[in-house]
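Shipment paperwork, digital attachment
Item: protein structure file
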Amino acid sequence: MTVQHAIHGRVLVVTINRPEKRNAINAEVTAGIDSALNELDDNPELWVGVITGTPTMFSAGTDISSRDAGRTERGGEYGLIRRERKKPLIAAVEGNALGGGFEVALACDLIVASTTARFGLPEVQRGVIATSGALFRAMRALPINVARQMLIAGLILDAERGFELGLVAEVTPPEQALPAAIAMAEKICQASPYSIQQTLIAINSQLKDDDAAGWEATQIAIEAIVQSEDMKEGHAAFFEKRDPLWKGR
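Attachment content:
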């Protein structure tokens, strides 16, 4: 199975398990994430979720070879990105969280990362743009100039720098991100689940207008990009394993 989930007390752990493809997300992975998070949302015995990858890779984002990772009714992109959640979700990151992988982490409430973690948004290097929330969530999670560097200049953040900037809540030794995230989730479970849910609802309600504006701006950019010669060249260069020859249009 490309997505596995396990219950630890009141904590649901969701694991993207496609290491041969760097945990890249296709329609099957999206469906698996969606199913697991539906269980988190709907099961009153579950109070907190953790999403993670394999020990050396969180996720490389959308599987380009699949062309479309799909959407779900409740979760949107990747079964998560547009989900209206009221239970906390923690990202436990080992290795690369790139492109859509980073956008998955940005869609969570907290990020725990080991010293092997690297966060990046390389889309423009392929002639495309970040389409799953990073155009506005990166600026929310990071200083705007750092977000710009990630979005247009290919800046890669490691876990320590992410912690200094407030992106990462906790940094761990290698292969300890998941245990630390579960421990954090269990600590959250010591509080009132109803109080936590109402707190998240209140926080998210204040972000709805900003999210709507962010999605509108993202859609305008997507419509421009899909008609561009640079997008076609970026895809061709990727599959032909060569440097792209940009047209600038």
